[in-house]
Amino acid sequence: MKAFLILEDGNVFTGTSIGSTREVISEIVFNTSMTGYLEVLTDPSYAGQAVVMTYPLIGNYGITPDMESSRPWPDGYIVRELSRMPSNFRCQGTIQDFLVEHDIPGISGIDTRALTKILREKGTMNGMITTNENYDLEEIIPRLKEYNTGNVVDKVTCQEKRVLKGAGKKVALLDLGAKNNIAKSLNDRGCEVTIYPAHTSAEEILATNPDGIMLSNGPGDPKECKEIIEEIKKLYASDVPIFAICLGHQLMALATGADTHKMKYGHRGGNHPVKDLSTNRVYISSQNHGYVVDTDKLDPAVARPAFINVNDGTNEGLEYVGKNIFTVQFHPEACPGPQDSAYLFDRFINMMGGEQ
Fold first, then answer.
1. How many CA within 13 A on the CB side of residue 38?
2. pTM higher than 0.85, yes or no?
3. What is the distance, to the nearest Å, from the Cα of residue 255 to the centroid of all Cα atoms in its chain?
4. Which is nearest to 201 in space by CA: 161, 234, 170, 226?
């Protein structure tokens, strides 16, 4: 069956329908990872977005047990070529069946390189995936321009708290759309991790006397999370050690008076170089974000830049002055890799008074 990807600038790509055949409007973003398509599909940070995979062949090892949450989150999936006959000793099914099962529409057979160049040159834009050959551009484009992802954190956060038992430090993890490997990275280091829904009050978290607090990754515009920011202000004032990743990094910055802005096309992939400003050492990192902390509006008495992106100089991490708090824009849990920055979990445990 034919499928069409219609962008809000009027560009139309024609390909083959994969997954569900329902029509969807979403924000179109691209990911440059060469492996780990299943982790991308199950990363809650993609809620409200349709993902373009720049690597030309997707699905060659099928569905494996490498999911980062219980289900896939993107609104749509866009690939050059979809493998119909995966081969891997852990394979449990095909991407096609996985997309159908979860009612996610997609399109294959289009020039994803040309599409990515458009998104890089013009910036991230909204689009529609449809199988309707009689589409009306004049009717569709205004709808595309009106689309907004809104507050998607409420959609992806857990509904009730749960505990991963451990004999070490007690960590409270605020689930803003957390990837499984964040809690696992802490739990593997002996921590007892209690995972809380995003709208849990600071008072409830602090009442358990955690040794440390983790703010997770998540989707959407950080400024939409007004109530959560108010609770993070209280966590900041508590003097409990805090480590934050991605959306958590942005929310901590907003809670302490800094600002964020939307990037032209964001950072999404497993090959982004970041420099540790304290050592000048460069790490290759996994990233998935469309917003960034504006360091021009950073109060040096509150926080100072700790990492920068080597490619474009944007902020990749902050250290908070006089506080046991550090935050990063990239993903040290990096599932799939690279695992260059996994040492940051050891640093967090050390901050809590544990052994690295």
1. 21
2. yes
3. 20
4. 234
Name residue 3's beta-bridge partners.
Answer: 15
Q: Which CATH number fits domain 2-146: 3.20.20.60, 3.40.50.300, 3.50.30.20, 3.90.700.10?
A: 3.50.30.20
Catalytic residues: 246, 331, 333
CA atoms within 13 A on the CB side of 63: 15
| Superfamily classification of domain 153-351 | Class I glutamine amidotransferase (GATase) domain (3.40.50.880)
The domain locations on the chain are 2-146, 153-351
Which tokens go with 181? 């490997």
The answer, yes or no, to whether the previous bond of 65 is cis (omega within 30 of 0) is no
Residue 118 to residues 10, 18, 105, 228, 295: CA-CA distances in angstroms? 11, 22, 21, 35, 28
Let me know if 296 is exposed, middle or buried by CB neighbors in 10 A (0-12, 13-18, 19+): exposed
Estimate the share of the chain in helix, then strand, then coil, as percent rounded to the nearest 5: 25, 35, 40
pLDDT of residue 355: 61
Task: Give the residue among 149, 153, 123, 120 at the shortest CA–CA distance from 45.
Answer: 153
Backbone CA torsion sign across 206, 151, 55, 317: negative
Let me know if the fold of 2-146 is the same as that of 153-351: no
Task: Tell me the pLDDT tens digit for each residue of 193-245.
Answer: 999 999 999 999 999 999 999 999 999 999 999 999 999 999 999 999 999 99
DSSP letter for 166, please: -
pLDDT score at 339? 83
